[in-house]
Amino acid sequence: MAVIYQAVYRRASSLFCRLHSTYVRKMRYLNELKEDDSLCRQAQTSGTFYLFHNLSPFLQKVGKKYLVPQLSAAGVKMILEKFKETEQWIEKSVLIGCSDEHIPHFAMDLGALEKSVIESELKGMFTDLQKALFIVDEKDSSVLASAQSLLRWHDSHQYCSKTGQPTQKNVAGSKRVCHASGITYYPQMSPVVITLVSDGSRCLLSRQPSFPPGMFSALSGFCDVGEDVEEAVRREVAEEVGLEVESLRYSASQHWPFPSSCLMIACHALVSAQQAEISMNSQELEAARWFGLEEVVEGLKREPRSSKQDNGSFLPWFPPKQAIAHQLICEWVKQQTSRPA
Question: What is the spatial distance between Cα 324 and Cα 62, in angstroms, rounded to a whole number?
């Protein structure tokens, strides 16, 4: 009987641990903060804060590395006191996560305050997000992208689209409410397909006019209303390079804050090698061409600064590892090199 009891107890204990893992406890705590204004307000007194100025994150350079500092609530208040500001600024912050030890993380935009004073006081600098994402650690880049997207959403959704009346955010910043209409607004992401097209032995990469000189990437475009992912991929490839997709497979997804909060859905698409002549849409793309394996491998090694040649032209280089396009290109290289000779 005792043996049976011990076996049941071990099984129950194992189930309890699985149901109450560190991840589960953290997610439930975050949900409580989003739903309970008083609990979240209390958490602001013990949490850490990421600072932004007009949506540009604050960074500090230590040696050759760029770090993303987290300020304590006391540290934030010290900065605000320099401007004789009140603690109401803390209420403008938004919840962006928490540590495994349940220390909540918030983001705050101090765009109305003098930037140079904050930078001098904290010995750092506010940096354009597009640059910041590629010079900080991958974990930090994800946090900055999410934080900026949420801050941007609140900045652009201060009024109800139905009544025109001001909306109010909850303390966590997980929603905004129009009390005149009763409508609750939640942050949204726009789905975008990003597709690496291949004809079996080559991959197709393109440039948009807004890209840095020399950079080529996978095709991408917003999903239309009513489309599924497969339809969006086929349409974008047809529109941009005039090719018809024969088959496709999903790779991964990534949140991306440009041009606004987007969900990048990454896919590989195969087209017929016999019908692989590119017909580029010049209204959307600046260049598009096929790349062989050797050229792709060399491009992955190349850095933006080393791509400029003596004649002023640029050798092709590809998005850095923080971008999901980089993952697609690396997956294609791995597939090509693993094929039997």
Answer: 27
